[in-house]
Structures are given as structure tokens and as C-alpha cells.
Amino acid sequence: MEKHQIQYQTVHFNLNGKDVEKTVDVRASLTDMLRNDYHTLSVKKGCEVGECGACNVLIDGETFNSCIYLAVWAEGKRIRTLEGLMGPEGELSDIQQAFIDEAAIQCGFCTPGFIMSAVELLESGREYTDEELRKLLSGHLCRCTGYENILRAVKKTMYRRLGKEMPTA
Amino acid sequence: MYDMKALYQAKSVEDAVVLRLAHPEAQIIAGGSDVLVQMREGRRAGAELISIQTLDEIRGVSMEDDGTLRIGSLTSFSHITRDPLIQKYIRVLGEAVDQVGGPQIRNIGTIGGNTCNGVTSADSASTLHAWDAIVELTGPQGVRRQPIAEFYIKAGQVDIREGEIQTAILIPRESYENCFGHYIKYAMRNAMDIATLGTSVNVRLSADKKTVERARVAFGVAGPVPLRAAHAEALAAGQPVSLDLADRFARAVKEDINPRDSWRAAKDFRLHIAVESARRAFIESVKLAGGAL
Question: Using the beta-carbon criterion (under 8 Å), do B104 and A73 form an inter-chain contact?
């Protein structure tokens, strides 16, 4: 059998605020690199075909399913994972706390992906309607919660950050 | 890890052409939402890839001196939807690609990939057909431009020749000026679904908004490749705006379309929703253009 020549490439990027570099196998997905080389294990391997959203991370401020993104494409990018939300003393961020408060977590597998999509929309500083929020969160599958609690956690945090009262009903 | 034989990363469009000639068997990869998924499924396992993902020179929307709207092939769906030029001149394209997959897919998926995979259900394809888009390809002989209808050869096959890559989608001024359009994606779910049928209509009305100067309609999934309904277009041209015209226009689309039975939907059902979607999209387009009916 023909021997496969493994191709490596060095990638420089910023992970959760820190400049890093790594020599990776070009066949690696960004999920592979983040999990295996950086132990950012919030990035889950779910469907691995870009459908479930469990591997979602922010790349230059936009959400991407890291399972269908080559690790070598990270060159020069600013990448954020759930780990980057942690406070200096290990505190949870407001959106993570809201997920707990609203029982928006059961098994937890989809949660980091959902939260990173929530981070993008919360940081836009905009006030979204329920319909818009549903659409912005539609790239994630959750088999436990039925989505309502997730929507409420995001909505509550959005209003808290906007300094507004959340409308009832 | 992907089951990939080799990865060649293009550093420029020129470099991509050189790589294409050097590795004719290699698959071009742009955003990756098709190619990487197919590789994972085993369909493209063991392939060599030429990545053009990092070529920022073919990313973004701009206006050329002659008024042609240029959409770089690597522009993602979400960037097309948000782009001010798209919103001003061909808003319906931004609305159509906003219905692809989910948010993360719209950040990675590109308009070039959506057209180069030659799939009839692509959400951008019917609108690009309905607006007479021009496909720009760059190859060893330089730049070649081709109407999008000729770019599609058959299901899953487009006219990309040796050494070429698609570098832009162009919308000429004559094609978008004073035109207003509406796209209807008929699918089972609102997110992460593929169109059962896609219908894109656009109209240009006379100055007094009483006459249809030009109406264009294209469908996805009404045939093996996206297609226009020439009979309906001819029927509406020059006619006074009315609900009756909308009905006749919609019924006439059956002359040109040829949907099939598939596990997603039956042929008869597709014919039914094609007529109804054409009617609704025509009415909506006329309203957007300032007409009353």
C-alpha cells in the first residue's frame, strides 16, 4: 500500500484572547485542533457534518461550526470558545448563569454551542424579537429541553444587558 | 481528521489556477459546507483538495464603473444579506440566501459554492437565474463570462473548465435597475432544510406603475437544474397590472417546468406549489415595485 505522506502546517491565531501557534496535520478540523491540542473541551463533537451546532465557536465575531472548518484556516483569526467566557476567579458569565437559572440545561451537550451563538447576538447590543431570536438560535439541536427554556435564558440576559425590563407575556 | 489525500492552499487567484492545472483531479473547496460534509460521508474520501477559502480578493460585494454589481464568489450568505448594495439593488437575493441552512451555515457557505455544486435546490440559484446573473470564471486564458443559465449543464454539473475557478457573480445594471423581486422557499421546516421548491419572481413596472414592463420567474427543484419559465414571462410582458394577470402568469409556468417525484414531494404537489408560489411572488413583487392590484 502506498505510504501516506502526512502534511503539516503551522497555524498562528488568537484563542480566547491569547496569541498561540501550533503545527497541525492539515487533515484536522478546527474541532480536532481545539479539543486535542488546546483541551478546550466545551467544543463538542456531535454530528460532525455541520448540522447540530455542538461544535460552534466564534471566529472573528461570527458563529461557525468548527467541525466543518479546517484547522489550517484559523491562521490569523480570533477564535473564542466557551472557556473564554470564564471570569478571573473562575466565575460564570451572566449568560451561563441564566442557562442554569432557567433550567436551559439538561444533559449539557448542546449548551456551549448555544451559548456561543447567544454571545454573538448579545454582544451586538440589539434588541431582538422572539421570532428573530428563534431564527438566530436555529442552528442548534437540543434533544432535552424543548428549546423554550433556552430561548427564555437568552431573552432574559438580552434584556438585562440592555438595562430594560423584560416584557411579560 | 478528514480523510484527505492532500491539501493545496491557494495564495491568490493566479495561484489557484496554477494549482488547478497541476492537480486536475483535486476538488476545489471554498467554505467547506458541501465538500467537507461529503468527505465525512465517504463520497469524497481520499480526495485532494485545493482550498481557495482564504482568498479575500474574491470576497465581498462591490459596484463596477458601468453599474454592474459584483459579488465575489467567496462572499458568505450572511454577508450578502447584510450588504448595503445588495439591500439596495437586489434585496431578494439577500432574503433568499438568508433561508439557507442555519446561522452558522450562512456564515461559512459561499455564493460561489452554492452555484458551483450545480444543485437545483440551491436557495441562491433561482434568484440568480431570474436576474440574469453572469458567472465570471478565471482560468489560464484569463477571464471568461457566461450567463448563469448556460453555466448549469445538468444536475450536479456546471461549466468549469480546465484550470478555472469561479471568481464572481455579476448582475448587470440593466438586469436590476427598477426591478423588485420576491423569493418563496417551500420547505418542511424553517431552518436546516432543503427547498421542496424555490420560486423567484421579479418585475419592472412602467413609470405610472400600471403596466408590467418585464416579469421574470425562475424555479429551483422544478427540473434537474434551476430554470426560467419563458411562457409566463412572455405572457406578462406589456400587460396591465391586475390580479387576473397574476393568475394567468402563474398558470403559464406549467408550460416550462418539469418537476419530478422524489421522496421530498410528488410531482403533482410540486406543480401545484409552483403555480401558487408564482402567483404569490408575482403579487408581492408588483407591490414592492409600487403597483396596486
Answer: no
B72 and B161: one domain? yes
A83 interfacial to chain B (CB closer than 8 Å)? no
Give SS3 for B7: strand
CA dihedral for B137, B174, B250, B77, sign (positive or negative): positive
Q: Would you call A167 exposed, middle or buried from its count of C-beta atoms within 10 A (0-12, 13-18, 19+)?
A: exposed
Question: At residue A4, what is the residue type?
Answer: H
Q: Is the minimum CB–CB distance between A50 and chain B shorter than 8 Å?
A: yes
What residues 67-96 of chain B have any CB closer than 8 A to a CB of chain A?
78
- Please tell me which of the candidates A27, A65, A73 has its beta carbon nearest to residue B53: A73
Domain A8-81 has CATH 3.30.160.20: no
- Give A138→chain B minimum CA distance, Å: 6
B55 in a domain, yes or no? no
CB contact under 8 A, B105 and A139: yes
Q: Are A116 and A56 in contact (CB under 8 A)?
A: yes
If asked whether residues B64 and B170 sit together in one domain, one would say yes
Domain ranges of chain A: 8-81, 94-162
Residue ranges making up the domain that contains B34: 4-49
- B194: domain CATH number? 3.30.390.50
Residue of B nearest to A60 (CA): B107
State the ipTM, two decimals: 0.94
For domain A94-162, the CATH class is mainly alpha
Q: What is the mean pLDDT of each run of 10 residues along chain A (169 residues)?
A: 81 98 98 98 97 98 98 98 96 98 97 98 97 97 96 98 90
Partner-chain contact A50 B104, CB within 8 Å: yes
| Closest-CA distance of chain B to residue A18, Å | 22
Please give the grid coordinates belonging to residue B105: 451555515
